[in-house]
Amino acid sequence: MDLTKLTREDRIVGGVALVLFVDLLFFPWFHFSVSAGAFSVSASSSATGAPDGFLGVLAMLCALAVVVDLALERFSPQLTLPIIGGSRAMTRFALAAAAAVFMALKFVFHIHFSYFGWGFYLGVVLVVALLALTNRVRQAGSVSLAS
Fold it and tell me: Is the distance from CB of 67 to CB of 18 less than 8 angstroms?
């Protein structure tokens, strides 16, 4: 695998998407604590766990699809894949937007800031960064194609 085929933007987008994937899968999104007298029990759940874990799974799959799409475009350019909006960059932007939508739905269904763990806040920063980066790459590609 020749990593010189990846541009700086590719590495950043792929890295952010990969860290978002890890965040959704492993980091604590919800933290619950129950105290009864002298006993206290606390637990945490990732984005793919309850409640509404399917939204976390869908967001995680979208983040992974960004990485896979980027890798296939750079390392296997002869492979023809379906595209959205006329370019691979637009496809990656659409996947990042879908991840953001699934994460937003998970948030809206469970708004209670005292239950959110640090993984949730990191996930919000990562998905906003992924959206901004994929949008920037998409716009740079459309400008270079137009000139």
Answer: yes
Residue 63 confidence (pLDDT): 97
DSSP symbols for 60-85: HHHHHHHHHHHHHHHH-TT-----BT
Q: pLDDT tens across 103-138, in order?
A: 999 989 877 767 788 999 999 999 999 999 999 999
Q: Which amino acid is at 21?
A: F
C-alpha span between 34 and 41 (Å, rounded):
5
Cα Rg for the chain, rounded, in angstroms? Answer: 18
The mean pLDDT of the chain is 87
Q: What domains are defined for the chain?
A: 3-146 (1.20.140)
- DSSP-derived 3-state class of residue 3: helix
Q: Above 60 in pLDDT, residue 140?
A: yes
* Cα distance between residue 102 and residue 113, in whole Å: 18
Q: How far is CA 126 from CA 28, 39, 41, in A?
A: 15, 36, 30
